[in-house]
Amino acid sequence: MKLWVLRHGEAEPRARSDAERNLTAHGREQVVRSAAQLLGQPLQAILASPYVRAQQTAALVHEALGFGKPVVTVPWLTPDTDPGQVIAALDNLGLEHVLLVSHQPLVGNLVGILQHGHARATEGMSTASLAQLEGDWPLAGLMTLRSMTHA
Question: What three-state secondary structure class fits 74?
């Protein structure tokens, strides 16, 4: 399995709620740079948080790649979701090549757990950072971080 984990681009500091924050112009530029790292990759699905900034990030990636399937919005990619819930959902999907678009602290915790098997080693991911993991299954401690790019 190949798993890409993308943190949303830079977002406005304020909105009516955290979920409603939009990407800034700089954030959109960051996302386009990160999307370039995905060109030619055999993605089967783009899964995104329902938060506005993640939806905007996923839409920019979708457009940049000319991806043929719609972005799938899932409720288990919000900032404070338990990484174990994400791992279980990924396992149930049965896909081999997936891009997740989400937020800190979830993305850093998820990448850390998939690599090291525990939450003590979180991965630092700034806005529009893209991690590529690879392994036989999306299970704690059984994936290898192949690359980490920061936009």
Answer: coil
User: Which amino acid is located at 7 in the chain?
Assistant: R
CA distance 15 to 21: 5
Residue pLDDT, tens place only, 3-42 = 999 999 999 999 999 999 999 999 999 999 999 999 999 9
Q: How many residues does the chain have?
A: 151
pTM above 0.85? yes
CA dihedral 79→24→20→34, nearest 10 degrees, is -40
Q: Which domains does the chain have, with CATH numbers?
A: 2-149 (3.40.50.1240)
With 0-12 / 13-18 / 19 or more C-beta atoms within 10 angstroms meaning exposed / middle / buried, residue 105 is middle
| H or E stretch at 102 | strand 97-102
In contact, 135 and 144? CB cutoff 8 Å: yes
Report strand pairing: 144-149 vs 45-48: unpaired
3-class SS of residue 150: coil
Q: How far apart are CA 135 and CA 7, in angstroms?
A: 20
